[in-house]
Design brief:
With 139 residues, the protein is an all-alpha fold. 55% of the residues lie in helices and 0% in strands.
């Protein structure tokens, strides 16, 4: 392509080795999966590069692998079943890590502090007053 900074023919083999090391270190490529991705990356570089690219430009142009999302299904259990399972976990911990004991937590109340209506009134009073003060005396 005759791009600016194209390596000279006498160092092209060294360039290939450098590129190979930079691209493959810490990565695993699968020929059947990655051949189209590698081709797509080089096509992108050929269409966009104005000078000889660096290996990071190739990696940036390499299409990402689409991965299916892991499915997570929440299966509701009764409080009795949950306590039975927690007891099993505590027993396993006692067997595997003697001295590491976890007390079951007491059920917490739905919410602590003032009722929601009271909090809303306080916020309304505070912000309502602030709007009048901010608007000035002629508002």
């Amino acid at each position: 392509m005759g791009l600016d900074r194209t390596p000279a023919s006498d160092v092209i083999e060294i360039t290939v080795g450098t590129w190979h090391e930079a691209i493959t270190t810490g990565r695993v490529f699968d020929q059947s999966r990655d051949t189209p991705r590698v081709r797509a990356a080089f096509v992108t570089l050929a269409q966009t590069a104005e000078r000889w690219p660096q290996p990071r430009h190739f990696l940036d142009a390499l299409p990402r692998i689409e991965q299916a999302a892991l499915r997570y299904e929440v299966k509701p259990v009764s409080p009795e079943e949950a306590e039975r399972r927690m007891a099993e976990i505590r027993k396993t911990l006692d067997e595997k890590a003697p001295g590491f004991h976890v007390e079951p937590k007491a059920a917490k109340p739905e919410r602590e502090g003032p009722p929601l209506a009271e909090v809303e009134r306080e916020l309304q009073a505070h912000y309502g007053r602030g709007k009048v003060a901010a608007a000035g005396s002629d508002a």
